[in-house]
Amino acid sequence: MPSDFTRASTTDEIATVCRIETPKNCGLVIFGASGDLTRRKLVPAIYRLYRQRLLPKGFFLLGVSRTTMDSERFRDLVHEELPADCDEGCWLQFARLIHYRSIDYGDAGSYRANLSGILPALEKEAGTEGNRIFYLATPPAVYESVISSLHAAGLAGNDQGSRTRIVIEKPFGSDLESARQLNRLLLGAFREEQIYRIDHYLAKETVQNILMFRFANSLFEPLWNRRYIDHVQITAAETIGIEQRAGYYEGAGVVRDMFQNHMFQLLTLTAMEPPSLFSASRVRDEKAKVLQSIRPFRLDRLDGQIVTGQYGPGVVSGNTVRGYREETGVAPHSAVPTYAAMKVWIDNWRWQGVPFYLRSGKRLGRQGTEIAVCFRPVPHMMFAQSFGGGISPNALILRVQPDEGISLEMQAKNPGSRMCLMPVTMNFSYPREVTLSAYERVLLDCMEGDQMLFVRDDGVDLSWEILTPVINAMETGGGGAVQIYQAGSAGPSAADSLLENDGKKWRSL
Ligand SMILES: NC(=O)c1ccc[n+]([C@@H]2O[C@H](COP(=O)([O-])OP(=O)(O)OC[C@H]3O[C@@H](n4cnc5c(N)ncnc54)[C@H](OP(=O)(O)O)[C@@H]3O)[C@@H](O)[C@H]2O)c1
To answer: 114-171, pLDDT tens digit by residue?
Structure first.
């Protein structure tokens, strides 16, 4: 019998407390504009912001890539990706803000010829006063050329007071050394305050709410420690396979793709200490301290800490699907993991002895990302004699996607004459219509200059520092062979042992 939290809404009774910022006028320059991300995610997100009047008054979008086309053709391309019911009048107004230039990414002269002229003209027309965001929506192999050329062409604008910003898509490096090299390159051209390393998971409503929920309520924080929490489970389960991304995925695998960024970010937000101020630098300081406290994995005993798997053929949502090795572009004997589960220890006062279990995989039976904070059982179960065992301890579930919200699982008396306990769930869901999509959120934050949801250089460095030796050991046979799991299942059975050895169980997918 689920009951509901009442949402304090924008109604008169309870006012929502909001941060009110209007983004400053700015121009957005997207590199790799002919690509998939720009068409499917970025431009639709910008269009929705425009429709909701959330864009600054002075704004323009300049798409840049190698493909030769004029602005009209580019507008047509991005228009095709907008929903069929898109308001044509609104689109026509929005389309006037969109422009395109082709460029050679690695040639600073091409930037001078193709950007240095058009940018000031567009800025004058839109009144953006030189505020620019460069968005790198290219494959990572191109980042270096774009960053170096922007710098060489004098477009990085890293003097104090400049509002030039640069957004870098994930993946940020493929190991510690490549991430450090990219950071060195970036910091040679831009200042850290100008750099926005995207992890769009962080822009999900529930992820941001972890901080608000933990630190704006007095109810949970006193319980948020080793004394009351038994363990934490963080799950990011996907039903999709690798789609058309074999080229990337064969070189990455699930640990690079999901753990170094999303999973570790969710972990840090769950485990961090309250910052003294709700500011990007203080929050990121606390997140870095969590990463510094993660116990290094024992590389000679990886099998007790990490289980990896790869999906075989199976049935997902009623459809028969191929195994990973049969996907186009995947090597027939590929050992690249599409699933991983790991046990992480945080060596500090708050979390000593509390395991954090992380799992993420593709082609699983259910889609969903959640953080489950599993509390200890009550110290003495006085109902045990009357009702027997099987009474589950409390759990607080932060649902990141889908159906973003929070649930609290408790025990209550079953109504009626008989004395029975039953599990009940109090549930809070975000109404869909008030949430911004992850890309709307990150774009808006970048325009506002709010780096809270972006990863700082030390955050990237620390997470690679932990995982690079693990990935290297796994790739040379440490931790045992990758386990094949059936598509549509909950992952390899060996992942269950990771918890069963500790007397615990995964929550069902
Ligand atoms: N697509 C997504 O849903 C998604 C989600 C999360 C993160 N990302 C990240 O976002 C970035 C862009 O993704 P995407 O899917 O849009 O990539 P994409 O379509 O493969 O590439 C974007 C554009 O970059 C240029 N390009 C591609 N390969 C190149 C190469 N080898 N050398 C030089 N230019 C090249 C192409 O434009 P021109 O040939 O016209 O220059 C292409 O249209 C990637 O870093 C990706 O990891 C993407």
So the answer is: 888 899 999 999 999 889 999 999 999 999 999 999 999 999 986 666 689 999 998 8
**Cβ–Cβ < 8 Å for 439, 429:** no
Pocket of ligand 1 contains residue 67 by CB under 6 Å: yes
Going by CA atoms, what residue is nearest to atom 13 of ligand 1? 37
SS3 state at 3: strand
Closest among 235, 94, 264 to 172, alpha carbons compared:
264
User: In sequence order, what are the residues at sequence separation of 6 or more whose Cβ sits closer than 8 angstroms to the Cβ of residue 162?
Assistant: 130, 194
Instruction: Sort 113 into a burial class: Cβ within 10 Å, 0-12 / 13-18 / 19+.
Output: middle
Q: Quote the CA–CA distance of 166 and 186 in Å, as a whole number.
A: 9
Three-class SS state of 187 = helix
Catalytic residues, by residue number, are 262
- The phi, psi pair for 407, rounded to 5°, reads -130, 145
To the nearest 10°, report the CA torsion of 125, 131, 133, 134: 80
* Distances 159 to 185, 309, 335 between C-alpha atoms, Å: 17, 48, 47
pTM for this entry: 0.91
- Taking only Cα atoms into account, the Rg of the chain, rounded to an integer number of angstroms, comes to 24
Give the tens place of pLDDT for each residue, 255-313: 999 999 999 999 999 999 999 998 999 999 999 999 999 999 999 999 899 999 999 99
- CA 17 to chain CA centroid, Å, is 25
How far, in Å, is the centroid of ligand 1 from the Cα of 31? 9
The two structure tokens encoding residue 392: 């589950």
Alpha carbon distance 9, 11 (integer Å)? 5
Q: Please name which of 369, 362, 393 lies closest in space to residue 379, comparing C-alpha atoms.
A: 393
Tokens of 15: 């006012």
Distance 173 CA to ligand 1 centre (A): 15
Which residues, listed in sequence order, are joined to residue 99 by a DSSP beta bridge?
A: 62
Give the start-end residues of each E strand in 210-282. Answer: 229-237
Could you give the domains of the chain?
26-198 (3.40.50.720), 202-380+457-500 (3.30.360.10)
